[in-house]
Design brief:
The protein is an alpha+beta fold and 166 residues long. Helix content is 58%, strand content 19%. It has helices at residues 2-58, 61-79, 85-105, and strands spanning 108-111, 125-131, 140-145, 147-150, 153-156, 158-163. Strands 1-4-5 form a three-stranded antiparallel beta sheet. A hairpin with a 2-residue loop joins β4 and β5. α2 runs antiparallel to α3 (85-105). The protein is elongated and about 120 Å long. The chain starts with a helix and ends with a strand.
Length: 166
């Protein structure tokens, strides 16, 4: 009976040691998987940070590229020494068209409310003054300076005068 008990305890010990070894191997495997996953996550985070940094750094590249012809036109206009007023005006108008096209290609759109028909919008307009007018109250009377928006974000509100209540 003692021998049977000893054999049973030996088998139980051997099984417990085998289970322990198996659990230790599983633990080591899980620890390895955890470290690899953590390293992969760190690498992904580092790559994302690099991409964000590059995006910020080079975000204006396309915009600047579209403005280069405008700069070239201005330089070409300054080279002409004996230009007439009409030539200077034509050159300035052509350069302005180039600039407006470059802005439009880059989603920079003017905010130019129509006097008398556009209601004052504080998100797009900045009222400089309220003036008596035949227009309905809170309607744009004059545009002193166009505003600009990129996508749906206002870069600069339009400077306007607004009709006073009657």
């Amino acid at each position: 009976m003692v021998a049977a008990q000893a054999a049973y305890e030996g088998d139980a010990l051997a099984k417990a040691q085998a289970d322990l070894a198996e659990l230790q191997a599983k633990s080591a495997e899980l620890a390895d998987q955890y470290l690899r996953a953590k390293a992969e996550a760190d690498n992904a985070r580092r790559r994302a940070d690099d991409e964000i940094s590059k995006s910020r750094k080079f975000a204006v590249e396309a915009f600047a590229e579209s403005l280069l012809p405008v700069a070239d036109s201005l330089e070409a206009g300054l080279i002409i020494k004996d230009a007439t007023n009409e030539q200077i005006r034509e050159g300035a108008q052509a350069t302005l068209r180039q600039l407006l096209a470059a802005l439009e290609r880059n989603k920079v759109m003017p905010i130019n409310p129509q006097p008398g028909t556009t209601k004052f919008d504080p998100h797009q307009h900045q009222a400089i003054s309220v003036v008596p007018s035949e227009f309905e109250a809170n309607t744009v009377v004059t545009v002193l300076q166009k505003g600009y928006a990129i996508a749906d974000r206002v870069l600069r509100p339009a400077l306007v005068t607004v009709a006073a209540p009657k």
